[in-house]
Write a structure and sequence with these properties.
single chain; about 375 residues; mainly alpha; about 85% helix
Length: about 375
């Protein structure tokens, strides 16, 4: 046996063990890394406001605290307002449920010529097996729901703490990062940081504008249908549909449908139809154009980045995909050599298919004529 073989085997085993240890550590810390990434983008989003306040002589820590306090105050106030509104609507719906049930039973009896009664329907529902199983599963799932809520609150607190330190100690963090790099690399890092701040702010601006447009459109619908709490519901639809990716649209439309049902069950169908139609308009018309202007990327790239971000990191990836891709594109654009485009009609799409066919026919006739002349000379 060669003398180097035992050392090679030991080295291979050591490398394999290190790889397994690193893979295990990465999977254990992937949740923390995602929280840090989300906190970093949140810090980039509030950086312009904190920078303006710091430029006027305020300490960055105090400026960051005031910005976060304002965001939390608005968020808590909005949640409390919607919670009280939803609780009132649920109470009204429970009180009026017998009336809704009677109207539904009368419609069924008139339409299908049946003889149903509310007492029979209530007895069949209360004595059904699926209701008993549902109650048992709900009772056993209370602890799971409580654990999920507490875990979500802890994750939210972690994100806010990291975002606070990133924003408050932004200059110190940049100095620490640049201190280990040569001057040329320092300029590139600072430029990338500035681009990331601009692109993240542009993305939030586009989301805010789309939330405003969505809220106004749904407010008009709620006013036409005379749905209660139309302004609050419009704000709910605008914010939730834009700032909660993937499932935000469905969460946003569920609450207005529930409240519209208390007014008239058919109004809930109108709300559902409008939400679906407006979502298609937003996905294929409004969002690609507006996002491409605010973050300066192609609509197809914006749509593809959201799909890729969702596949990689879920809802968090969908939320930060567009500003991340826009930042990367803007940063790499400075290192891609570009040339002047030649003055050709095909560049502007002016050459039609018919003209191309005519040109090919003319070229073929000319080539045939040249061959005939060559045969005649021979």
């Amino acid at each position: 046996m060669p003398r180097w073989l035992p050392r090679a085997m030991v080295l291979a085993l050591a490398l394999y063990a290190c790889f397994q240890l690193g893979d295990w550590a990465f999977h254990q810390l992937v949740g923390l890394l995602v929280n840090i990434l989300l906190a970093f983008f949140l810090a980039l989003a509030i950086e312009p406001a904190v920078g303006r306040m710091a430029a006027r002589g305020m300490r960055r820590g105090l400026a960051t605290f005031l910005v976060f306090f304002g965001v939390l105050a608005v968020g808590i106030g909005f949640v409390v307002l919607l919670g009280s509104m939803l609780a009132g609507q649920i109470v009204d719906m429970v009180e009026n449920f017998p009336k809704y049930l009677d109207s539904l039973i009368n419609w069924i009896n008139q339409t299908f010529h049946t003889e149903l009664s509310r007492v029979e329907v209530q007895d069949s529902v209360l004595k059904s097996d699926w209701l008993q199983k549902y109650v048992q599963n709900s009772a056993t799932g209370v602890l799971d729901v409580s654990a999920t809520v507490l875990g979500g609150l802890f994750r939210l607190l972690t994100i806010f703490l990291f975002a606070f330190y990133f924003a408050a100690d932004g200059p110190r963090l940049r100095r620490s990062l640049c201190s280990v790099l040569p001057p040329a690399r320092q300029a590139e890092v600072l430029r990338a940081w500035e681009i990331a701040v601009d692109k993240t702010g542009g993305y939030l601006y586009s989301r805010g504008l789309m939330a405003l447009i969505s809220g106004v459109a749904h407010f008009v619908l709620f006013e036409i249908l005379d749905v209660p709490y139309a302004p609050a519901l419009a704000v709910w639809v605008g914010l939730v549909s834009q700032f909660i990716p993937t499932i935000g649209t469905y969460l946003a439309g569920a609450l207005p449908m529930l409240i519209a049902f208390t007014v008239n069950p058919w109004y809930a169908l109108w709300v559902l139809g409008f939400v679906v139609v407006y979502q298609q308009f937003e996905n294929y018309v409004l969002q690609p154009k507006l996002t491409s202007k605010t973050v300066d990327i192609h609509p197809a790239v914006a749509f593809g980045s959201v799909i890729a971000g969702t596949a990689l990191l879920g809802a968090v990836g969908a939320l930060i995909a567009i500003p991340a891709v826009a930042t990367l594109q803007a940063f790499l654009g400075a290192y891609v050599k570009r040339y002047d485009v030649m003055d050709d009609p095909r560049v502007h799409g002016h050459r039609r298919y018919g003209e191309a066919v005519v040109a090919r026919l003319q070229k073929a006739l000319q080539h045939k004529k040249e061959n005939q002349n060559t045969d005649g000379d021979a």
